Amino acid sequence: MSSSTLSEGRKQFIVDGVTQDCRADGRRCIDFRRFQIETGIVSNTNGSARLRQYGTDVLVGIKAEIGQPKQERSNTGHLEFYVDCSSYNTTEIDGHIGDFTTQLTKSLERIYDSENVLDLKSLTIIAGEQVWVLYIDAVVLECCGNLLDCISIAVKAALYNTRIPGVSVNDEEGVLELEISDDPNDEKKLSIDKVPVIVSCNKIGHRYVVDATQEEECCSSGRLLIAVNDRNNICSLQKSGTGSLDPSTIFEMIETARQAAVPLNQELLQTLKREERSNNDKCGFFAN
Amino acid sequence: MTIFHSCRGHGTYLQDNKLKASVAGFVEKVGKLICVKPVKSRYNGEVGDVVVGIITEVGQRRWKVDTYSRLDSLLMLSAVNLPGGELRRRSEKDELMMRQHLTEGDLISAEVQSVHGDGSLALHTRSLKYGKLIQGTLVTVAPALIKRCKTHFHNLECGASIILGNNGYIWISPLLKEDAENQTTKSDTSTLEREIVARLRNCIMALAERQMLLYDTSITYTYEASLNYQVSQHKK
């Protein structure tokens, strides 16, 4: 359904609903839709996760490869993002799919590729020469609004699931040799304590709404991407789309996002831990 | 199934002298003719069907309407009731005023007037029950899930009215108050009415997810069963 062509009457109905704190599906302004998440479902990756929601389906895979560090950060590993939306089409990206995916990729990169988010130092093998590079690929199979938040949740889950094989460095007469261990137990987990999820806060009417549907997104007069981690700290702030925001509005939006992020982060962590304990009942791609 | 007593209809094929379904769906028998109606398909219009549509284009004496059929449906200017006077000639002035009447993105309820040779539909709204839909929520489900009934307009006892379009578009709106004669864009929907609409929407989506047929009774029963839960807990 094309969202840019929503009639005035319907827009008004949505805006009034938000004002009364009762949205089209009965949610309150700070409620997220329920989602299901599964990790470790793509066997040829180091970590993967699939997030499913009504009308939304995002698959994230992480591959670790040994590569050269970035020039400006020679002592740490880094992340490379790629978002593929080719199978998903709305009027929002009509004909500009390249722009849209670049925008998503850049947003994710800005938020996650930082030492304050992940312990990138632990990805170093030989300082200045060889590091682990995490290639994080997201495939959007289906989307029903609030795409970036869904991707970020899946990315966090996939990072939780990522195992990096142990590497030993052998010094043979001045030539350094890397040896990747075959032992499946010799693996490193990544800490996701400081990894945030993105909460997009939309200003609709005079209130702020998280996890907006496509219809709600086209009633929004301004959107702010707020990355919040488990400790409820703000990691990043980005304004997205058109529209302008008053400084006081921004503070209120941040507060809304923090409120909404607490149950979201808790639920995600609980689900991931539960899934890790019972590792054998995966539905994978056979789930309906 | 042996072929001796049956005719091959849509959605079936013959293999080893047996009739097999080529699509997943419901079997329909009319006399000897056996068809399989697919669960997931675009809307195939029939004359007299009630549909809910979205205006996508305003053209020369016609509107193009999205009704989830394979081709755009048409609503002719001559097939709508214009304000003021039942029967009058459509003048050039009316043509210029078309966008004031219905514009892109507007939702309408209409009836299928005729089906063209290529399968595209001509709609009409020449009755007081049809027309523009303003305050409410649209839910889209597969067209096959809508049960064909005598009427597709229902005023449910729970306090909402519902239009089950044969094309799978369902419109849920708060009951119009008797005294409020003029239906304006101004909203006076209370939170309670909104919760009813939201609950109905969630019920319909739950039924559709389980591939249950949608008609007034099934929706009412689901609604009653859902009353044990707070609407803000559905979260879908």
| Tally of separate helices of chain A | 5
**Strand composition percent of chain A:** 25-35%
Q: What would you report as the Rg of chain A, rounded to the nearest angstrom?
A: 20 Å
What number of structural domains do the residues of chain A give?
Answer: 1
Outline the structure in words:
The complex is a heterodimer of chains A (288) and B (236). In chain A, 27% of the residues lie in helices and 31% in strands. Chain A has helices at residues 8-19, 97-112, 147-161, 214-217, 247-277, and strands at 36-39, 47-53, 56-67, 78-84, 124-126, 130-142, 163-165, 167-172, 175-180, 187-189, 197-204, 207-210, 223-228, 234-240. In chain A, the strands form 4 sheets. In chain A, strands 1, 2, 3, 4, 5 and 6 form a 6-stranded mixed β-sheet that branches. Chain A has a 4-stranded antiparallel β-sheet with strand order 12-11-13-14, sandwiched between helices. In chain A, β8 (167-172) and β9 form a beta hairpin. The longest helix of chain A has 31 residues, at 247-277. Chain B has 236 residues and is an alpha+beta fold. Helices cover 17% and strands 34% of the residues of chain B. Chain B has a 5-stranded mixed β-barrel. In chain B, strands 12-15-14-13 form a 4-stranded antiparallel β-sheet, with helices on one face. In chain B, strands 1-5-4 form a 3-stranded mixed β-sheet, with no helix packed on it. In chain B, α3 crosses α4. Chain B is flat, with a radius of gyration of 20 Å. Chains A and B meet through α1 of A and β12 and α3 of B.
Describe the structure using short key phrases.
heterodimer; A: 288 residues; alpha+beta; 4-stranded antiparallel sheet; 5 helices; 27% helix; B: 236 residues; OB fold (Dihydrolipoamide Acetyltransferase, E2P); 3 domains; exosome (chain B)
How are the elements arranged and paired?
The complex is a heterodimer of chains A (288) and B (236).
Chain A: H1 8-19, E1 36-39, E2 47-53, E3 56-67, E4 78-84, H2 97-112, E5 124-126, E6 130-142, H3 147-161, E7 163-165, E8 167-172, E9 175-180, E10 187-189, E11 197-204, E12 207-210, H4 214-217, E13 223-228, E14 234-240, H5 247-277
Parallel strand pairs in A: 4-6
Antiparallel strand pairs in A: 1-2, 2-3, 3-6, 5-6, 7-10, 8-9, 11-12, 11-13, 13-14
Chain B: E1 7-8, E2 12-15, E3 18-21, E4 25-30, E5 33-38, E6 50-59, E7 62-66, E8 73-80, H1 92-96, H2 98-101, E9 107-115, E10 121-125, E11 131-133, E12 137-140, E13 153-156, E14 160-164, E15 169-174, H3 191-209, H4 216-226
Parallel strand pairs in B: 1-5, 8-10
Antiparallel strand pairs in B: 2-3, 4-5, 6-7, 6-9, 7-8, 9-10, 9-11, 12-15, 13-14, 14-15
Helix pairs in contact in B: 3-4
